[in-house]
Amino acid sequence: MTQQTLLRRVALSLAAAGLPVLPLRRGKAPFGNCHQCANNACGGRPNMKTAGPCRCPRVCHAWAAATTDLDVLSSPAWVAAWRRAVCIAYHPGAAGLTVVDLDHAAAVDWAREGLPATRVVETTRGEHWIYRGAMSSHNAVLPGVDIKSTMSYARYLGPGTGTMTDLPDTVRALAMKEPSPLRPAPHAITVPAGVGGEECRHRTPAYLDRGIAMAEQRITEASSAIHATVYRTFLAVLSTHGRCGCLTDVHVARLFTAAQAKGESPRHCTDAWTNARTRLGL
After folding, report:
1. Angle at 281 between CA 278 and CA 282, to 5 degrees
2. What's the whole-model pTM score?
3. Which site from 90, 152, 263, 264 is most exposed, i.e. has the minimal number of CB atoms within 10 Å?
């Protein structure tokens, strides 16, 4: 049995179980648009952002082509694609799932310390944590952390281990956009040493330091949308540490310093911090 035949059999089994699948070609990339669909000539799925009215029988719309239809998967066009495939992908959002893609050891450590246990699949460089519940997909929400759900695809690397649990608010918070400023805020950092009064659920003090370092790195490496990146980073830090009293003025100052080094004013930093706290009810 060839690898491509095995991939197709596995894909058919997954589809029969309700997981929308598609083949990936060399480079773990989706198959490109066919001639009829190039430049949105088919009238649907522009830039692969929406499902659209396209009824092309080929595998040419990335995540939007993922299907559970066994007849489609066995059609001549798809069989030809499976012959060129190197791996299987699936559309998590269509199955009501979210994949937290952890790309290196530090990201895995962050998940182990701050996220509820769920089904885990090992990857080449890290792990996929799979939760029940769909959300919007976002890349680089933290260094080495991507969220793959709606309008995205993830590689299928096996069933994984552990029991799947519900998508936590901590992950949803990473994708939140900043609301309009709620009110004028002072220039000084005003967060007290203990932001919240709940019991700390983190196993080691080093987790907080690692989280702050990852947040600083995310801000420092941002090349665009700096203000939005700062807000989402603040939101992620507060969603994990804001209720247990771990954060101190020193930690917050490190985040503000990283943001101001990217051109954010003290006022913008304070507004973003205040808005993030308000969003989380802190």
Report:
1. 85
2. 0.67
3. 263
